[in-house]
Amino acid sequence: MQSFEIDKTDLVRLKTALQGDDAELEIVLKDYHASEIAILFEKLAQEDKERIINILPTDVASDVFAEMDEEQSPGELLINLDPEKRSEIVEELDYDDATDIISQLDEAEQQEILEDIDEEDASSIRALLSYDENTAGGLMNSALICVNINSDKKGALDDIIRQSEEMEEFYTIYVVNDDRILQGVVSIKDVIKAHADARIQDIYKDEPVFVKADLDQEEVAKLISQYNLTAIPVVDDDMRLLGRITVDDIIDVMEQESTEDMLKMSGVSEDEELSGNWVEAVKSRLPWLIVNLGTAFLAASVIRHFENIQQQFPVIVAYLTIISGMGATLPRRHLL
Known about the structure:
By secondary structure, this protein is an alpha/beta fold.
């Protein structure tokens, strides 16, 4: 399957369907994946986005929100929805995705959303909102599967089945003690293959790779890449298990960090995004362009005082543009 990019044909088809009734629009939307709808949202008005979200089934709508970039302001879209539809979407989202979206809103709007959803979900999201978004705590999802180190095979399988009902997929089973202190990891394969009388303490692997909740997201990405992990547990200072970070979250972080590095190398402000519009670019760059223009005029006025020397040594003129170009390169990158 090829990656999806906005195509004029798709956009015209969707906008035409938006002019018709909901039944026609629903038929058209069925041909697109949630991630593709999120991309098409970049070219749609706010009222059109709201209409589409209201038509989509809750599970698909939540996937669309999860796929939207921060620049598309999914939080603004969410808060403008009907409270019932909004609550269904938030409860369907993974905790980390819901937290990322809700964190874009002001405190009053956050409270409005959290008061309308299940108390357990609200409590988990509030806990995640307390972490800095650029740390492991801000990235993690508190939904995970863990088993007690003292459990036998049957008890462990029962716990895994019960906990997995609320999760679409999981990669690792974490082993904890009675105080939820992380002890190690165990695979579902090892649990299934173990003898009927086996205990988790006999088959788990200790010394797992883990991160503290306050670790910078870039360091988390390095650890996952270094150890080829699909997920990594997050713990507090007492080694109490808090959540997990999956590889799909890290891909987003690596993309974000790469974009920031590219913008810096290009001499573009960190406040300016690749997807930003020209108005934002002008606002960001204009003050420093004016400063550069002023210094260029100043340099030109200084050169004019040495016209006699230029006439005596014409070869100097050939080097003026080279020297001025080399001298302007570094300041521009830092100013812009």
